[in-house]
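Mods, move this if it's the wrong board.
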Amino acid sequence: MININKDDQKKKKMLKKFINATTDVIKNEGIDNVTIRKVADIAGFNSATIYNYFDNCKQLIFFASINFISDYVVEMPSYIENSDNPVERLMKMWEYFSLHSFKNPKIYYAIFSENLGDKSENLIRNYYKLFPEELNNAPNNLLPMLLESDLSKRAQIAIQPCIDKGFFSEKEAKLVDEGIRLAYHGMLTLIINNRVEYTPEEATDHLKTHIKTIINNYI
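Not the wrong board. Structure tokens:
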């Protein structure tokens, strides 16, 4: 996405028009039916105008999809706050993230798995720079993770307290992190492709079992 100054209210207003229009398409027709032309028509502009703000349709879908994860962002801090130690906290983070992912798999895939073009650009951070009010006063200690759009980096931030407290070495943490992410992506892909008939809760329980096994191999 083209870099936009957060104080440029005109451009911010235009961005919101396109994001809201995309959100309407997702709500009414589903994420698979989003097109640049549909979004432009709803917003009242021609298709070419959208490319002044977004590099491609996937980035547009990404930004609109953030609207659909606000409940996760708001509720997750309270879900993990009573954890007894960093390992339990890590497991709760993955559990809550997975449950929300499996309830809305295509949305979470669009944000955390889809190829958006520019891998160096942190689109979540760009989004919240423009719309900081949508972070809903998230705790400062969780902001580095919540503002990270790369799931690998997000997971590294989540597991760091386990390293700091001596539960894992750096090498062990990388293996734990990779194992959990592979299990998560595998389950998410199976759900999206209708290869399993799990409810979101059942899928989360299955993933929790695998996460526990992975973690217990190194504790």
